[in-house]
Amino acid sequence: MESVVFIFSLIDCCALIFLSVYFIITLSDLECDYINARSCCSKLNKWVVPEVIGHAVVTVLMLISLHWFIFLLNLPIATWNIYRFIMVPSGNMGVFDPTEIHNRGQLKSHMKEAMIKLGFHLLCFFMYLYSATTGARLTDLTLSN
Amino acid sequence: MSAPAGLPPRPAGAVAAYPGGPGGSREAAAPQGAAPRCQNGPVQSQMQFPSGYGSHPPNYSAPSGHYSQVPSKAVSSHLDNQYRASYQSPYYSAPAQNVMTPPVGTNVLNTRESQQFYNSSTPPHTVGLTEGPAQGAIPSGSYVYTSAQQSYSAFGDHYNTSVSSSVASQGFPLNSDHYAMPVVSSAMYPNVSYPPAATSSMYGQAFTSQSLPAAGQFKETNTFSSQSTSVPHSLQQHVPVGYNSTLSTISSAQSFQDNLSKSLTGSVAKVNNQVNRGGIDSSQPVHSVSQNVQLTKPGFGAPASSALISSVRTPAPGLSSQPRSSPSITQSPDSALQEALDSSSTTSSASPVLNNYDALEGGGYPETRSVTNSPVPTPPAPQTSKTSKPFGYGYPALQPAYQNTSPPTPVQATNPSHHPGFQHYPQQYPGVNQLSSSLGGLSLQHSQQPEGLRPINLTQDRNILPVSSVPAPVPNLNSDLRKLNCSPDSFRCTLTNIPQTQALLNKAKLPLGLLLHPFRDLTQLPVITSSTIVRCRSCRTYINPFVSFIDQRRWKCNLCYRVNDVPEEFMYNPLTRSYGEPHKRPEVQNSTVEFIASSDYMLRPPQPAVYLFVLDVSHNAVDAGYLTIVCNSLLENLDKLPGDSRTRIGFITFDSTVQFYNLQEGLSQPQMLIVSDIDDIFLPTPDGLLVNLHESKELIKDLLNALPNMFTNTRETHSALGSALQAAFKLMSPTGGRISVFQTQLPSLGAGLLHSREDPNQRSSTKVVQHLGPATDFYKKLALDCSGQQTAVDLFLLSSQYSDLASLACMSKYSAGCIYYYPSFHHSHNPAQAEKLQKDLKRYLTRKIGFEAVMRIRCTKGLSIHTFHGNFFVRSTDLLSLANVNPDAGFAVQMSIEESLTDTSLACFQTALLYTSSKGERRIRVHTLCLPVVNSLADVYAGADVQAVVCLLANMAVDRSVSSSLPDARDALVNAVVDSLSAYMSTASNLQQSMLIAPNSLKLFPLYVLALLKQKAFRTGTSTRLDDRVYAMCQIKSQPLVHLMKMIHPNLYRIDKLIDESTIHVNDRVVPQPPLQKLSAEKLTREGAFLMDCGSNFYIWIGKNCDNNFIKDVLGYPNYASIPQRMTQLPEIDALPSERTRSFISWLRDNRPLSPVLQVIKDENPAKTDFFQHLIEDRTEAAFSYYEFLLHIQQQICK
């Protein structure tokens, strides 16, 4: 059971890592003028909800499986994701707004955010991996016994 | 004026001056003879005139009254042709003799001007030239060259001697009006044989301006200047024009502006004496030299003819008369350009000699030492040290070569074809640098430093407003760069001294940013057609006056410092038709230029002008009656719509359905097509909805005549604006163009419907004001779609109720459109608004327009832009996408300093606006601004441009109030004042903390911020409708600085005693100049009448006990009681007060694109609240008075 939870988290975490990398690449494309703000934002906005859900699922899963430490670790980032999604002004076209992204250093802060998330997810990835393998070993042990 | 043909050849004519002169000029005859000798090479071909001049002088002295005109005319009209004709072959082959018989009548004004410039520029140079070959004269030549003072002295010299003796004696006064020679006109002043009226002629003015600082010791000139108050204006006009060579002119003018004259006069006087002794001759050879050079031009042009690819054209001026300039000074673009080039070419002949003198003598004079802050080190002799300077002193870079070959003759002998080019560099630059550095030093030490930083005790100093409008601070550059710099009307920086590091900027607590008005109507704009537009290969910067030429073949970018090659075509100068002088090309001589772009700059063929009008015809709209005004304005201006033969036009009307109009050519009458499926809008017919204006003109006129009455009985109250806009977008997307939307209510149906969000009870709340942002992203998305298809949406909101402008404005904001708002519009109940709409429409329909535009702002490496303000869509980091650009749009950007600017002393900014003109030409308008970099906090404060700072802060505050909250934004504004003043006070340690001290440059800062806090956009406590507030915010974002400042801080004048005021002359009109009054009721008296200029409105407030004569003479009513409540025009009464008042008001109006609506307000008029709300220095129930505000700031600082 334990290992199933962690293997699922591992897969989810992989997806989130890929998403973070995708965010970083797209934002840096925008920074380098390879794409324009409109297409960049529409690309990214599409993935904001999946990201929120993906992360929320892991967090909830950890809560359910009573892994308190991992749950508390995930909580701030998940809250931030949801907060950011809810607080989008009514006139904006999503978390990433093409008319604002070049103003007030928003692009940079988005970039920074994506970097932090990437780091966080990498950390989580190894934690899940470790837990999954130790969990698997535990089941192995119980089976062999 | 009399027939030039009958006169002897020009060069000879010029020489005639010498024999005519007194002894001094006879001495000059010797150097003269030598002068041509040094110009061998190409000059050989002109040897005819040197010889002619040896023999002819006696003849010429007789008709001396004519000689100066004829040559001048001949010269410039020839030139005129030369460059207008864009290299017609006849001119290439034209021998020098051609010059003698050009069409004289072309452009008298031009001729005079150019001639004047070119002469006026020459005196200092010629000295060097003439002295060079004639060894005996060397000492005096060196005097003149080495420093600014000496060049003044050259002028002083004119006044003293050459003028009264040689020139005046030759009978010039006879037709003084036509005189081209500055020598002559200046001569007249001391003699006072010119009547004061002569001031209005351009020479008079130009010359006074030049003579003022230099000739301070002459009583005559002083009295003269006091007679004409227009001198400052002539100065301003004058300075940017002749910058190439009229070094002395400009520097003197500049110093005049800096109040330098006093500090200078001492040294001037000294040098004057020196030059007076031996300098008479120096002024004389001017003519001969300059004329020679003119003649040689065709000769130079010819060999290079194969290289001519580019030509320079000048467009017809957009405005007939430029604000502030008397017409005589306003120069046609042609002449301006011509002057620049004429004069520069003139100087070329003297150069090598000059350089030598410069090198030899430069160090000998204390005046020429380099000054603390001036970027030019001004080494006395070796120019080599300047070569590697990273900034715009490029030309000296060429000099080492010259210095090595100091004897001029070998240089010329070796490569005669490059003669003008090579000579040019050294000639111009050593003079400029030395001169300017010494000048810059003076200004720093004597005037500028104290002026910008002079501490002002705000709580005690009550009269801080200047007498007339607040001038833009002049960057502390040396005068040659200053002359080249972009006009502050187009390009302004909040800090004219750029701090070196971000840390320093943070310490100053002032925002760093640019305020741009890039598409401003300009009266003179060099337009360049060239197959290759020279740009930096790495950062794509356009070549500009601040690049440095490392040698003839390479230039160094002033933004990224990359060294680029000069393309072959660029070596040829189309204006002088000479080869090998890339630095004299108009691109390098003007900081504002326009290129005609090649197909490389097009993604598709240039689009035609396409106009689509989307009109609300619901009951509400019909009731307001705007349709009649719009249709009539359109009918009137149909032929004036900018465009060419491809211009297309279309109409859509909407209520709860959308109506299209088929105007296809061949129909007998317009055909209305109604689409009622507003949820899935489609175009009822593929063509015929957007039709060619010229082919279907009759149908269009029929429609416009019919439209106002078509919907008179409508009962439809709904408005399906969103669907109409979607339809409009579909219609426009293949071409792009302009959609003008007229809306009178809240959209209530279909896509983009909105709900009322305003709570009227909250209008005067002092707490949070909600709903400043859009309610839906529909309009934003639509705007971005439009922007992507090069379509701009302009919104005219004419509503009486809340219409959620915050949401609707998005359609214009992000598509680079513009927004007009007419609250409580009604054609008969509110005639003032109706009149305003009419005037706005007239301007709107006829003003210039640029399509499918993009604007890029580049700045020196190390600076970066982080926020943009204005109506556009930021497509990538520094690229603004502007579907349309109009001359009334202003932009602002905020910048940060990412890398320290320690390795450079100049920071440059360049905006390039690429657009398709209404005639289908792809054009690029480039503005370049150059500012010094400083490393001390005091310098940063000294260079603060308070108006720009306030405008940028207003833009930032709008963002803040939308993204955060209004109280936040207000606090931020107050904090901006508190922080910057306390930072200033902590730097100046000797100040007492108990007083509120501001540097002179920021003395108006608290006042302006208080005005902002009382502005509709940011005020709290006073009942303000949400739409009014949002509209004010939109205006702050999109207005250029000049208009925004009037909106923030209106100008108040007392106008019942205009006859006593000082006056200026504009267009033969006498315009009184009443002083600015404080915006306080304390200044209003019941006995007076006051005019308030709020930018878009003029209010005339009539006091109860106002003089009946004024009411009778100006307003046309017998007494105060009989003045009607609604009065929007001043009658034309044939009395002096009326004439003065009207000329003053029309002068104010001329200065702006939108003609403001005038309202006469009596004391008991309900409209008086409009007037009194602008008296921002007074206390209101909800806000501080100015004094209280100062105390509040002081309290905050002390905390």
TrEMBL record, chain A:
PANTHER family: CORNICHON-RELATED. The keyword Transmembrane applies. Signal peptide: none annotated. Keywords: Membrane, Transmembrane, Transmembrane helix. The chain crosses the membrane at residues 5-25, 52-75, 114-131. InterPro entries: Cornichon. Belongs to the cornichon family. GO terms for cellular component: membrane. It holds the Pfam family Cornichon. It is a multi-pass membrane protein. Its main location: membrane. Coiled coil: none annotated. This is Cornichon family member 4. One of its GO terms (biological process) is vesicle-mediated transport. It is found in: Membrane.
